[in-house]
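Exercise 7b. Backbone tokens:
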């Protein structure tokens, strides 16, 4: 019988899509998120599709080390160590560096990086004791190269991708595979919320990566986890960008400068 799957940010977007697809494969699900109403709705959605699995809700702020560690420990005690663990919780608030307060930068790092770090750190022991498992981090194509308007967001994804690369090597001896997902724009509530603060140049730059449905991103991620891939992205263009980002960065900077100049006030 498949072991459980734990997903942070599992109440909506990519996280919910991952939880639903793993539930369809017979895995009991633990979803971790802040909003109790969204958690309850997500649970009903998962059970409507996969009534034979159990779904456990954990209302938690992943940026709070004490809270997420306690929630993970409770989930392990009640369900066992996970076969799949996906750190999908994240925030994104685009804006220019000159306009955003330091608190915005700090909150992004706390949720996007430390939230995933706390989750993985709490799980490594139980997963080791269980003989291994599959761990994934939701990063972004914004970790491939610096994107105008993402000074608060992009560095957190660079950091998260770096963590994933290191853990892919370090945790292999314990039978734990680590995969970093780099999706481009995905049709989620978070992307819709970004529009409120996204500079026009940032929006145009983002159009180059296309728009994906969360179900497509989730399927791509799970397939990569099953193959123990260190990283994956959405679509051929973004995969090539990830593979050759260091070579392509000068070209991408010139492309962005042209767009920025077009949107700069006279």
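Sequence design result:
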């Amino acid at each position: 019988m498949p072991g459980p799957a734990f997903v942070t940010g599992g109440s909506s977007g990519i996280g919910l899509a991952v939880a639903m697809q793993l539930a369809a494969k017979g895995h009991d699900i633990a979803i971790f998120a802040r909003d109790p109403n969204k958690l309850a709705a997500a649970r009903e959605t998962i059970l409507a599709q996969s009534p034979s699995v159990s779904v456990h809700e954990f209302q938690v702020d992943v940026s709070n080390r004490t809270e997420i560690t306690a929630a993970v420990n409770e989930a392990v005690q009640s369900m066992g160590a996970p076969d799949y663990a996906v750190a999908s919780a994240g925030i994104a608030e685009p804006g220019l560096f000159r306009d955003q307060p330091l608190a915005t930068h700090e909150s992004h790092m706390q949720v996007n990086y430390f939230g995933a770090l706390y989750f993985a750190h709490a799980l490594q022991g139980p997963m080791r004791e269980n003989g291994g498992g599959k761990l994934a981090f939701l990063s972004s194509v914004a970790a491939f190269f610096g994107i105008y308007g993402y000074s608060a967001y992009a560095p957190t994804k660079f950091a998260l991708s770096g963590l994933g690369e290191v853990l892919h090597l370090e945790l292999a001896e314990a039978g734990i595979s680590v995969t970093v997902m780099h999706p481009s724009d995905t049709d989620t509530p978070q992307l819709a919320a970004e529009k409120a603060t996204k500079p026009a140049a940032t929006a145009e730059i983002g159009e180059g990566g296309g728009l994906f449905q969360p179900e497509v991103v989730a399927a791509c991620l799970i397939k990569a986890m099953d193959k123990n891939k260190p990283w994956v992205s959405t679509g051929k263009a973004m995969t090539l960008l990830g593979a050759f980002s260091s070579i392509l960065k000068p070209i991408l900077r010139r492309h962005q400068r042209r767009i920025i100049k077009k949107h700069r006030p006279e």
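Instructor comment: The longest helix spans residues 102-129. The chain has one domain: 5-263.
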